[in-house]
Amino acid sequence: VKIGVPENYDGIFPWYLTKYSDLVLTGDDEGIFGVDAQFLYAIKPLDREKQPSYSLQTFTVEVFVIDKNDNVPTFIEESMRGSVQLGLLKIPFMRVEAVDRDDRNTAHAELRFSMMEQTPRIPSSQMFFIDSITGEVSLTEEGASTLDPEMCGRYKLSVMVKDMAGRTNAFFTSGIVTVEVTGNTWASPDPVRLQENLPGPYPIPISQVKWSGSQAAYSLDGEFPEMLFTISREGVIYLNAPLDRETQDQFHISIVVERPDGRQIAKPVELRVMVGDANDNRPTFPQAQYHTVVKELAARTEILTVQAADNDDPKTDNVRIFYRLVGQIPESPRALFRVDRDSGVISVQADSMEGTAPQYTLTITAEDAKLNSSCTVVVTVQDENNNPPVFSQHEYGPFHIPEDALVGTTVTSVLARDADVRGGDSWQVDYRLESGNEEEVFTLVTDRQTNEVSLILSKVLDFERESEYILVLSAQNQVPLVRGRYGPLSTATVSIYVDDVNEGPVLSQSHYEVTVREGEEPGRVIATIRGYDPDSHPIYSLQGDTKKYFSIGKYSGELKTVQALDREENSTYTMEVIAVDGNSSLSASTLVTVQILDVNDNSPVLVGDYSWKYLCTPRWEDQALVLASRDSDGPQHGGRLNFSLRSDATVRRNWKLTPINTHTNLSLNIPNLPPEVYMVPFTISDSSSPPRSTFINLPCPCNVRGNCKIAAKPLQGMPTIQSAVGLLLGTFAVIIILIVIFVRLSYQNPKEPSKTSQERVPLKISI
C-alpha cells in the first residue's frame, strides 16, 4: 500500500493519514508514526529532502512524502568565468549550471536561465545570449559581428536562474558571469603563386592557418579535384599533384574551422592559389580540315582565313603563332596559293583559275616558339557559266505519229551539249518550246543526268483538226551566262506529221436519264442520243427493250415511245443505245434509264371479304369492323386514303368511322339497333388534288345470336354446397358430350364454314 503525504504539514497533530484494519506498526525507527483505532497518524511534519519515503509493516505501508517547492535554486559555481575568441560565430562558448534540491520529476526543480544585464553595454547592449534551458552562453548575431577586444576586453553578465519553469511564483537566484574577450590569429593567408607542372616530390606545403582559441578541426572546400589540396590537424595546407593552368588558372580554397563535435566555430577564411604558365600547349586548329570554294574566273582574291588557338597564358609569348603553307596537291601549277604569316589569310595568287584542276588540297602549319600543328584546306574550283548549250543540228525530223497515239508517247529525244563541268549548275540545261505548241499538245521532260530532253505527247491528236506541227526548241542554262551569249546554235526546229487513223464514234454522255409521264401518247421524242464520228455518220440501235416499248432513229438518235406506258406495270426501264461506225465495226454505247412519272389514274378500292362479319346489338364496347383499302398509284397520289360516311343524318347517327393507322374502324354510333342487315354507304378518297373517290355500300349485319348473348354475372358471396355439387355434375356432362361430338367429327370430311356460322363469331378490334 502506498500513500502520498505532503511535506512540511503545519496543521494540528496528530495528523491522521489513513485507516487500515488489523494494523500493527513496525519499521518506525524515528517514532514519527503511530496507530490509534486502526488509524495511521504522524506526530510531526515530514521533510522530503531529509527522507523521501518510509516503509511501515505488518503489511507494508510505504509513505511517500510529496514534494513542495521549499528549496531555492543555486548556481554550482560562485565565480562563473568564460572567454570568447574574436571571430567566433553564434555558438556556445561556455555554460552556467545550477541545482535545486526539490524533486527533479516535478516543476519544483525545472530550472530556467535568463540574462538580466550586460556591463558595459558597448558596442551593443545585446552582445550575448543565454539558452533558457541549457544555460549555454553564446554571442548574438550582432555580437559576433561587432566584438572587438580593443574596444572592450571584459564583460560582466548578470544572470538569473528560476525554478517552476520560470513561473511568476518561482524561487530564483542571480549571479555574475565574467567573460574575457581574447584576440585570434584566424585570418585569410596571403595568396600563393605556383608554377604549373611542378616536378615534386608531393605533397608540397604551400600555406598554414591557426585557430588560437579552443581545440579545433580544419577542412577545405572549393572547386578543385578531390585530394588535390589537403590540410593537416595543425592547419598546414598541402598540394598533392601537379597543376595545369589550362585546366584551371586559379583556385579559391575555403578553409573551415569546426569544433570536434562538428559545429562551425568561425567564418571560413580563403586561400587564393594562382597557377603560373609554362609553354606546354601546341597551337591547334578548331578543325582538322577546312573546305572552301573559289570561282574559276576569280583573280588574286582571299578565299579563307584559318586561325589556331594556344591554351597557354595569353599574357606571355607562349601564345604567339605563325602560319606557313607547306604542301599543295596537285603541285602544278606552283605558286597558285599563299598564306599570310601572321593572320592566316589564304588567297589566290594567279590571275584566273580557268583551266586548273577542279580541286586542291593545301597543308597549313601553325607554330609557336617551340611547338606546332597542322590542318588541311580543300579548295574546290567552282565552275562558272561561260559556255552556252548548243544543238548538234539545226533541224530534227520530220517525225510521224498516228493520231490515236496514247497520251504520254515519246515523239523524239534531242540533246544540246554544254562545255561547262558536267553535273554543275552551269552545265544543267533548261529546254523550252518557243512556238508551234500554243495548244500545249506536247510537253518537255529533261533527264538531269544526261541533259537529254524528250518530246512527250500530252493531248489526244486529231488528224482532221491538225495534221502537222513545226516546233521551235530553245536551250538555256539554269544560271545566267557570265561570259558570251545565246546564239542560233542554242535553237533547233522539230517537225512532226500526224498520220490519219479510222476512228470510232464517240457519244456525248455515258449515261442518259429520262422521265416520261405515264399514259402519254406514243411517238413523242423523249431524248436525243448525240454521237460524233469524224470519218462517217454513226448508226444507232437499241438493246434491252424486250417489250418493244421504245424506238430510236437510225441516223437521228431520237428515242421515242411506241405505246403508252403504265407506271403501275413498270416504273423504270433501262436499255442500251449502240452507235456503230458506218465504215467499220467500231462502236460506242451508252445506258438510257427511263423513269415513268406517276399520274393519278387509279381510284382507291376496299380490300377484303366482309360478308361473314357482323356487329353485336346491343353495342359491345370496343367492337368494330376493320376496313382495309388500297390505291395502285404512288405515294404522291395514293399515300393516305380517307373514309367518309354519306351525308345522311340517319347514317351519321347510327354509324361511326374511326381512322386507325393505315386502316379504318366501322362501329355503331348508338347503343342499340334492331337486329338485321344494314347497308352502310361511305366513300374512299385518295390524297391527290383533285382526289379520286370510290363509293361503297357495305352490308353490315347486326346480331343478337351466338356470341352476342350477354354473359352471366358472377355470384355474390361464397357458393353453397348444393351449387358446388351442381357445377361439378354439369362440367362432367359437358365433357362427355364434347368427347362424343369430336369422335363423330373425326369420321367426317370438314366443311367450309357458312356465312351463318361465321356471323356467330363477334369481331374483335385488330390494330
Automatic annotation (TrEMBL):
One Gene Ontology term of the biological-process aspect is: adherens junction organization
Name the source's superkingdom.
Answer: Eukaryota
Q: Does the keyword Transmembrane helix apply?
A: yes
Query: Where are the annotated coiled coils located?
Result: none
Main subcellular location of this protein, as a coarse class: membrane
UniProtKB keywords: Calcium, Membrane, Repeat, Transmembrane, Transmembrane helix
Question: Which Pfam families does UniProt cross-reference here?
Answer: Cadherin
What positions does the domain Cadherin occupy? 76-191, 218-285, 285-391, 401-507, 508-606
A GO term, aspect molecular function = calcium ion binding
Q: Which InterPro entries match?
A: Cadherin, Cadherin-like_dom, Cadherin-like_sf, Cadherin_CS
As for subcellular location, the record says: Membrane
Annotated Gene Ontology cellular component terms: adherens junction; catenin complex
Please tell me whether the keyword Transmembrane is annotated for this protein. yes
Q: Where are the transmembrane segments?
A: 724-745
What is this protein identified as?
Cadherin 16, KSP-cadherin
Q: Which organism is it from?
A: Xiphophorus couchianus
Q: Tell me the classification of the organism that encodes this protein.
A: Eukaryota, Metazoa, Chordata, Craniata, Vertebrata
